[in-house]
Amino acid sequence: MQACYEQRRMFEKGNLLLFRPFVFKNGATPEDKFFISLGELDEGILLASLPTSQKTRFSGRDVETGCNELDGGRTNVYKFKAGDLAAKSADGREYCFPKDTYVIGKDLDTYPTISFLFQKHKGLLDNVKDYGMIVPEQMDKLIDCLKKSKAVRNKYKTIL
Length: 160
What we know:
Blueprint: H1 2-10, E1 15-22, E2 31-42, E3 45-49, E4 66-70, E5 75-80, E6 85-88, E7 94-96, E8 101-104, E9 109-112, H2 113-121, E10 127-134, H3 136-148, H4 154-159
Antiparallel strand pairs: 1-2, 1-10, 2-3, 3-9, 4-5, 5-8, 6-7, 6-10
């Protein structure tokens, strides 16, 4: 029972996790990856973002901190500025991304929590670091940005 509670808390909306490594659904080479839980569709199915520090994901253009709609709304990017407070743990530890970090609206995806348990069982998850919750000011702006975006699927907007 305790494991279920810990897993549930781990994937609570707004939680920032770092998977070392993250095993991608498409079979790409596992790598260390941040994971922001954005909500739950059904029991055990998460809506999440895998933020990136790679500007090439949106043609390398400079974007402002916060919400950005590019290409007439076809591309949505939320920027966490390097050094700004991004998350806070239950014990008060604060986390700032060391590089500008981006959530790309069209890259939101769903993940069954059981797949993470399977990866852990197979020894594919060496370490998952929990940085705590995205701070409310950032989380509210991120959710609002994604909800208003033309690039985010409607089925995901209802979850947000």
